Amino acid sequence: MLPEDPRALRSRAAALTAATELLVEGGPEKVTHAAVARRAGIGRATVYRHWPDQQSLLIDALAGDVRPMFTFDDSPVRDQLIGQLGQLINRLNKPSAVSVLTTIVQRSEHDTEARTIREQIFGDADENFAQALAAGVERGELRAGVECHARDLIARIVGPLVFQRFLMGELLEDARVIELVDLALGPWLAEG
Prior knowledge:
By secondary structure, this protein is mainly alpha-helical. It is 68% helix and 0% strand.
C-alpha cells in the first residue's frame, strides 16, 4: 500500500481543525463543506473528497478528541480518580468540550457513528472502574464488595460535575473533585 500524499494529509488535518472550530463556535449545523473549506483555506472539492457527506464530516470532527473516561493502573484508586478527574475537568472547562460532548450525546440517540464515539468515551467506564476497585480491595485500600457498586460510585462523582458544568454553566475546580471522590469512596475505605 502506498503512503498517502502529504498534501492530502495536510488538507485533511486543516479541514478537521476548521470543522472542530466551527462546531465549537456554532454547533453542528455550522459544520458544512463550504464553511470548512473557507475556514481551512482549501477547495470545497477537496473537503468533499475526504468526506462525501456532511454527516461523515461532522462525525470525524466529533471523534477528533475521543479518549476513554477512565484508565487505571496499580496505584491507589483515590489518587488515580483525583488525577484523572482533574484532567477531565480541565477539558470540560473548555467551551469546546461542552459543545462537542453535548452534540455527541444528542446525536448518539439516532446515529450509530455518534453512538460509537459515545461508547469509546463512556462505554467501559464502570467495568474499568470495577476492576480498579477490586484491585484496591486486594491491596487493602477498600472494603470487599465496593466493586459491585462501580456504576453508582461513578454517578455520585461524575454526575455532580456534569450537572455543575453543563446545566449550571459553572467552571469546575479541583477541590470539588476531591470532595466528591472522598464522599463516594469514604464509606468503602478499609479499616485501619
